Amino acid sequence: MSRNYELFPDDDNGNVLWQMVEDGNDLNEPHEFEFSIVFKEQSDIEKCALHLLHQEQKVSLFQEDQHTEGSDLWVLNIHVTMTPEYDDIQDLEQWFTHIAQDFGGDYDGWGCMSYLYEYEDDEPLQN
């Protein structure tokens, strides 16, 4: 299969989505994405989490272990289940970047669990 650069542009998001295809992920199926925002202050992450909950977003948060600069960062993950499409990811990144700035945080990217299937055994494998 050759890469369609209209569906998978040559940038970070397009490259990750294309890698998911090459790894055997079906991008026509919904996947759960985690978009992350990091904060230095607990009060800021709590305000942002509450704002996102009011926006009907599913969130989780935790405090990282001691960071290299000596500070403990707080991480807010926004869990979005969607069919992976480049434009939707771009839009969500812009929205979460704006929200991060509004609450004193920094948008830190996204990740997605891969689900791979071996059709011989009819048993799904999680990657």
TrEMBL record:
Residues 11-112 form the Regulator of ribonuclease activity B domain. Transmembrane segments: none annotated. SUPFAM superfamilies: Hypothetical protein VC0424. Pfam families: RraB. InterPro entries: RraB-like_sf (IPR036701), RraB_dom (IPR009671). This is Regulator of ribonuclease activity B domain-containing protein.
